[in-house]
Protein backbone atom coordinates (compact mmCIF):
# COMPACT_ATOMS: atom_id res chain seq x y z
CA UNK A 1 0.00 0.00 0.00
CA UNK A 2 1.34 3.44 -0.93
CA UNK A 3 2.25 5.61 2.05
CA UNK A 4 -0.47 8.06 3.01
CA UNK A 5 0.20 11.70 2.26
CA UNK A 6 0.37 14.10 5.18
CA UNK A 7 -2.86 15.99 5.41
CA UNK A 8 -2.85 19.80 5.02
CA UNK A 9 -3.69 20.24 8.73
CA UNK A 10 -0.68 18.18 9.82
CA UNK A 11 1.57 20.16 7.49
CA UNK A 12 0.17 23.46 8.74
CA UNK A 13 0.68 22.44 12.38
CA UNK A 14 4.22 21.26 11.67
CA UNK A 15 5.01 24.53 9.91
CA UNK A 16 3.57 26.58 12.76
CA UNK A 17 5.63 24.64 15.33
CA UNK A 18 8.80 25.16 13.29
CA UNK A 19 8.16 28.90 12.97
CA UNK A 20 7.40 29.22 16.71
CA UNK A 21 10.59 27.34 17.53
CA UNK A 22 12.70 29.57 15.31
CA UNK A 23 11.17 32.73 16.75
CA UNK A 24 11.74 31.58 20.34
CA UNK A 25 15.31 30.65 19.53
CA UNK A 26 16.09 33.99 17.85
CA UNK A 27 14.58 35.91 20.78
CA UNK A 28 16.66 33.91 23.23
CA UNK A 29 19.84 34.48 21.21
CA UNK A 30 19.11 38.19 21.01
CA UNK A 31 18.63 38.33 24.72
CA UNK A 32 21.44 36.13 26.04
CA UNK A 33 24.06 36.41 23.30
CA UNK A 34 25.84 33.46 21.76
CA UNK A 35 27.33 31.53 24.65
CA UNK A 36 27.92 31.05 28.34
CA UNK A 37 30.84 33.49 28.33
CA UNK A 38 29.04 36.28 26.52
CA UNK A 39 26.99 38.54 28.76
CA UNK A 40 24.12 40.71 27.69
CA UNK A 41 24.45 44.23 29.03
CA UNK A 42 21.32 46.11 28.16
CA UNK A 43 19.01 47.54 30.77
CA UNK A 44 15.73 45.79 30.11
CA UNK A 45 14.55 42.33 29.17
CA UNK A 46 12.95 41.96 25.77
CA UNK A 47 9.87 40.35 27.24
CA UNK A 48 9.37 43.35 29.50
CA UNK A 49 9.91 41.45 32.72
CA UNK A 50 9.15 43.52 35.75
CA UNK A 51 12.25 44.61 37.64
CA UNK A 52 12.54 42.19 40.53
CA UNK A 53 13.07 43.59 43.97
CA UNK A 54 16.02 42.41 46.00
CA UNK A 55 15.00 39.47 48.20
CA UNK A 56 15.12 40.49 51.83
CA UNK A 57 17.03 37.38 52.77
CA UNK A 58 19.81 38.02 50.27
CA UNK A 59 23.02 38.17 52.24
CA UNK A 60 23.80 41.79 51.51
CA UNK A 61 25.83 43.35 54.28
CA UNK A 62 24.94 47.05 54.46
CA UNK A 63 28.40 47.86 55.88
CA UNK A 64 30.02 46.55 52.71
CA UNK A 65 27.87 48.95 50.79
CA UNK A 66 29.29 51.95 52.63
CA UNK A 67 32.89 50.89 52.01
CA UNK A 68 32.61 49.97 48.35
CA UNK A 69 30.92 52.06 45.76
CA UNK A 70 27.83 50.25 44.57
CA UNK A 71 28.14 49.42 40.86
CA UNK A 72 25.43 50.91 38.66
CA UNK A 73 22.80 48.30 37.79
CA UNK A 74 23.65 48.37 34.08
CA UNK A 75 27.31 47.66 34.88
CA UNK A 76 26.50 44.42 36.66
CA UNK A 77 27.31 41.19 34.89
CA UNK A 78 24.49 38.82 34.04
CA UNK A 79 24.10 35.22 35.06
CA UNK A 80 21.56 32.97 33.40
CA UNK A 81 19.57 30.22 35.06
CA UNK A 82 17.28 27.98 33.03
CA UNK A 83 14.29 26.58 34.94
CA UNK A 84 12.84 23.42 33.40
CA UNK A 85 10.66 20.52 34.52
CA UNK A 86 7.39 18.86 33.57
CA UNK A 87 4.21 20.95 33.46
CA UNK A 88 2.78 21.59 36.89
CA UNK A 89 6.02 20.89 38.75
CA UNK A 90 6.17 24.44 40.15
CA UNK A 91 8.51 26.46 37.90
CA UNK A 92 6.32 29.56 37.60
CA UNK A 93 5.56 29.39 41.31
CA UNK A 94 9.31 29.39 42.01
CA UNK A 95 9.84 32.48 39.85
CA UNK A 96 6.89 34.25 41.46
CA UNK A 97 8.03 33.51 45.01
CA UNK A 98 11.58 34.63 44.22
CA UNK A 99 10.30 37.94 42.92
CA UNK A 100 8.19 38.50 46.03
CA UNK A 101 4.79 37.61 44.59
CA UNK A 102 2.34 35.16 46.15
CA UNK A 103 1.81 31.88 44.30
CA UNK A 104 -1.21 31.74 42.01
CA UNK A 105 -4.14 29.55 42.93
CA UNK A 106 -4.27 26.57 40.59
CA UNK A 107 -2.10 25.71 37.63
CA UNK A 108 -1.89 28.26 34.84
CA UNK A 109 0.39 26.63 32.23
CA UNK A 110 3.21 28.68 30.76
CA UNK A 111 2.76 28.69 27.00
CA UNK A 112 6.27 29.77 26.15
CA UNK A 113 8.72 31.70 28.30
CA UNK A 114 8.47 33.31 31.70
CA UNK A 115 11.30 35.18 33.38
CA UNK A 116 12.47 37.26 36.29
CA UNK A 117 15.64 39.27 36.81
CA UNK A 118 17.01 39.46 40.35
CA UNK A 119 19.83 41.87 41.17
CA UNK A 120 22.39 40.77 43.73
CA UNK A 121 25.42 42.57 45.09
CA UNK A 122 27.77 41.35 42.37
CA UNK A 123 25.62 40.38 39.41
CA UNK A 124 22.11 40.14 38.08
CA UNK A 125 20.47 36.76 37.82
CA UNK A 126 18.10 36.08 34.94
CA UNK A 127 15.87 33.10 35.63
CA UNK A 128 14.09 31.82 32.59
CA UNK A 129 11.33 29.23 32.65
CA UNK A 130 10.28 27.41 29.51
CA UNK A 131 6.86 25.81 29.84
CA UNK A 132 6.84 22.09 30.58
CA UNK A 133 3.97 20.95 28.37
CA UNK A 134 4.91 18.24 25.91
CA UNK A 135 5.05 20.46 22.82
CA UNK A 136 7.46 22.89 24.51
CA UNK A 137 9.85 20.23 25.89
CA UNK A 138 11.19 19.82 22.37
CA UNK A 139 12.82 23.26 22.67
CA UNK A 140 14.48 22.75 26.06
CA UNK A 141 17.64 21.21 24.66
CA UNK A 142 18.24 24.25 22.45
CA UNK A 143 18.88 26.38 25.52
CA UNK A 144 20.96 24.32 27.94
CA UNK A 145 24.27 25.28 26.36
CA UNK A 146 23.45 28.98 26.76
CA UNK A 147 23.09 29.18 30.53
CA UNK A 148 25.20 29.03 33.69
CA UNK A 149 23.00 26.73 35.79
CA UNK A 150 20.00 24.49 35.16
CA UNK A 151 17.25 24.16 37.76
CA UNK A 152 15.15 21.06 37.10
CA UNK A 153 11.88 21.09 39.01
CA UNK A 154 10.18 17.82 39.93
CA UNK A 155 6.74 17.30 41.46
CA UNK A 156 7.62 14.84 44.25
CA UNK A 157 4.02 13.64 44.44
CA UNK A 158 3.66 12.93 40.71
CA UNK A 159 4.75 9.30 40.90
CA UNK A 160 3.07 8.39 37.63
CA UNK A 161 5.04 10.86 35.54
CA UNK A 162 8.36 10.49 37.32
CA UNK A 163 9.79 8.27 34.53
CA UNK A 164 9.09 11.11 32.07
CA UNK A 165 10.81 13.59 34.34
CA UNK A 166 13.78 11.24 34.61
CA UNK A 167 13.97 10.81 30.85
CA UNK A 168 13.84 14.57 30.20
CA UNK A 169 16.41 15.29 32.90
CA UNK A 170 18.88 12.78 31.50
CA UNK A 171 18.48 14.16 27.98
CA UNK A 172 19.50 17.55 29.34
CA UNK A 173 22.39 16.12 31.37
CA UNK A 174 23.70 14.42 28.23
CA UNK A 175 23.37 17.61 26.21
CA UNK A 176 25.81 19.54 28.39
CA UNK A 177 28.03 17.45 30.68
CA UNK A 178 29.60 20.55 32.29
CA UNK A 179 26.43 22.37 33.25
CA UNK A 180 25.78 22.55 37.01
CA UNK A 181 22.31 21.19 37.76
CA UNK A 182 20.03 21.75 40.74
CA UNK A 183 17.20 19.21 40.88
CA UNK A 184 14.41 20.52 43.08
CA UNK A 185 12.15 17.89 44.68
CA UNK A 186 9.17 20.22 45.01
CA UNK A 187 5.81 19.73 46.79
CA UNK A 188 7.35 17.94 49.75
CA UNK A 189 4.41 19.33 51.78
CA UNK A 190 2.06 16.80 50.12
CA UNK A 191 1.45 13.59 52.05
CA UNK A 192 1.99 11.45 48.92
CA UNK A 193 5.36 13.08 48.17
CA UNK A 194 8.19 10.62 47.57
CA UNK A 195 11.13 10.64 49.94
CA UNK A 196 14.47 12.08 48.88
CA UNK A 197 16.07 8.64 48.87
CA UNK A 198 13.35 7.31 46.60
CA UNK A 199 13.57 10.32 44.31
CA UNK A 200 17.33 10.04 44.05
CA UNK A 201 16.91 6.45 42.97
CA UNK A 202 13.93 6.93 40.66
CA UNK A 203 15.54 9.90 38.93
CA UNK A 204 18.70 7.88 38.35
CA UNK A 205 20.91 10.42 40.11
CA UNK A 206 23.16 7.79 41.67
CA UNK A 207 24.32 6.79 38.21
CA UNK A 208 25.37 10.33 37.29
CA UNK A 209 29.09 10.94 36.87
CA UNK A 210 30.52 11.72 40.31
CA UNK A 211 32.55 14.62 38.88
CA UNK A 212 29.39 16.38 37.82
CA UNK A 213 27.98 19.28 39.84
CA UNK A 214 24.47 17.99 40.53
CA UNK A 215 22.37 18.68 43.61
CA UNK A 216 19.03 17.35 44.84
CA UNK A 217 17.16 19.74 47.15
CA UNK A 218 13.85 19.16 48.91
CA UNK A 219 11.39 22.04 48.75
CA UNK A 220 7.82 23.13 48.96
CA UNK A 221 7.99 26.24 46.85
CA UNK A 222 4.40 27.35 47.36
CA UNK A 223 4.91 28.83 50.79
CA UNK A 224 2.55 28.28 53.64
CA UNK A 225 3.46 31.70 55.06
CA UNK A 226 4.98 34.89 53.63
CA UNK A 227 7.13 34.14 50.58
CA UNK A 228 10.74 34.72 51.54
CA UNK A 229 10.59 32.81 54.78
CA UNK A 230 10.12 29.62 52.78
CA UNK A 231 13.23 27.60 53.64
CA UNK A 232 13.13 25.54 50.43
CA UNK A 233 13.25 28.61 48.22
CA UNK A 234 15.93 30.24 50.35
CA UNK A 235 18.16 27.15 50.12
CA UNK A 236 17.79 26.95 46.37
CA UNK A 237 18.56 30.64 45.98
CA UNK A 238 21.65 30.43 48.19
CA UNK A 239 22.93 27.43 46.27
CA UNK A 240 22.34 29.24 42.98
CA UNK A 241 24.32 32.23 44.23
CA UNK A 242 27.20 29.93 45.17
CA UNK A 243 27.19 28.22 41.80
CA UNK A 244 26.98 31.51 39.94
CA UNK A 245 29.73 33.30 41.87
N1 LIG B 1 1.26 21.56 47.29
C1 LIG B 1 2.11 22.29 46.58
N2 LIG B 1 1.71 22.82 45.41
C2 LIG B 1 2.60 23.55 44.72
C3 LIG B 1 3.93 23.77 45.18
N3 LIG B 1 4.57 24.53 44.26
C4 LIG B 1 3.70 24.75 43.27
N4 LIG B 1 2.50 24.18 43.53
C5 LIG B 1 1.29 24.20 42.73
O1 LIG B 1 1.49 23.45 41.53
C6 LIG B 1 0.71 23.99 40.47
C7 LIG B 1 1.54 24.18 39.24
O2 LIG B 1 2.52 25.16 39.49
P1 LIG B 1 3.22 26.02 38.35
O3 LIG B 1 4.28 26.81 39.02
O4 LIG B 1 2.24 26.75 37.53
O5 LIG B 1 3.85 24.85 37.43
P2 LIG B 1 4.81 25.00 36.18
O6 LIG B 1 5.96 24.08 36.39
O7 LIG B 1 5.16 26.43 35.93
O8 LIG B 1 3.91 24.43 34.98
P3 LIG B 1 3.98 24.79 33.42
O9 LIG B 1 4.07 26.25 33.25
O10 LIG B 1 2.70 24.21 32.86
O11 LIG B 1 5.18 24.08 32.86
C8 LIG B 1 0.11 25.28 41.01
O12 LIG B 1 -1.22 25.00 41.39
C9 LIG B 1 0.94 25.60 42.24
O13 LIG B 1 0.24 26.31 43.23
C10 LIG B 1 4.30 23.22 46.43
O14 LIG B 1 5.42 23.36 46.92
N5 LIG B 1 3.36 22.48 47.09
MG1 LIG C 1 4.83 27.70 34.36
From TrEMBL:
PROSITE patterns assigned to the protein according to its UniProt record, in alphabetical order: ARF
GO molecular function: GTP binding; GTPase activity; metal ion binding
Sites where the protein binds Mg(2+): 92, 110
Protein's name in the database: ARF like GTPase 10
Binding site for GTP: 85-92, 132, 186-189
Pfam families on file: Arf (PF00025)
TM regions (residue ranges): 6-28
Keyword terms: GTP-binding, Magnesium, Membrane, Metal-binding, Nucleotide-binding, Transmembrane, Transmembrane helix
Amino acid sequence: MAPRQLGPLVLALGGAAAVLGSVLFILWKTYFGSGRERRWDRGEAWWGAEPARLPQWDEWDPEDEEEEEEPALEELEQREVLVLGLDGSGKSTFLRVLSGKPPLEGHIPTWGFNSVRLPTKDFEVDLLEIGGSQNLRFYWKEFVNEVDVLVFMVDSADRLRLPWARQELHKLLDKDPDLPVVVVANKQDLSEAMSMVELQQELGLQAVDSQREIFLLAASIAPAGPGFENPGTVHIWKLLLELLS
